[in-house]
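Before surveying the methods themselves, let us examine one representative protein, written as a sequence plus integers encoding its fold.
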Amino acid sequence: MIDTVEEGIRRLESWDRPGEIPVTWLADISEAVIELLGWTNTGYMENELGIQSSVLNKFVKGRGRIQKHVARAVADRLRSYLKSQDQAFLQPDVTPEKKDVAKPEPPAERPVQFAGQSWVAVKITSDISQKIGAISALLDSIIHQVKHANAPSDEQIMTEIERQQLIAILQTALNILKSPMVEKGLLRKAQSILRKGAESAAEKVVQEGLGHMMGAAGDRIGELIGMIFS
């Protein structure tokens, strides 16, 4: 997680445009905040880091804009906090209350039909619970960004049909991640379409923040697949 924050700082320092920075540009910092909040809560982090909950919520939801010096202060405090905690977040014990928080009720949306290939019951550990929470938050933010994208068609990462397919697959992936069993084929499909979106953003030089968030989510899904199906 410290490496993730360091990468976020490097990306932050590369921002040389006037005005506030879209939070989607700072996916690495968002990821670190999301993973920490999986172990605690916004109020606790606000007290520990001296960061306002309104600022933390921007990173959790991946929405809005933020001043560069504020984003740097958040990143510096995250880095200091992680270093001070040493190995605290690698402890295997998770209380029942935290497990309940990590597995909220599935949303009411109707999932798309998908032919299962390799269903596996998930043995929840602290690492897997943390990874699922981070991925779920990233996917939720990506779905929101794609649904509300208002850029011209030539400045979009994907076509309208591709965007609808992406939303359907990611919504299904969200439902599966919140269930007792996961399906390998669907997760790989979600990973593939996310990486395709990240590559498209890089090639077209459009929606770079969203593309970076897609790349981060794809990488985390790959890590989860390795943890569950190895």
Notes: The chain has ten helices and four strands. The chain has two domains: 2-90, 96-229. The chain has a mean pLDDT of 76. Residues 126-147 form the longest helix (22 residues).
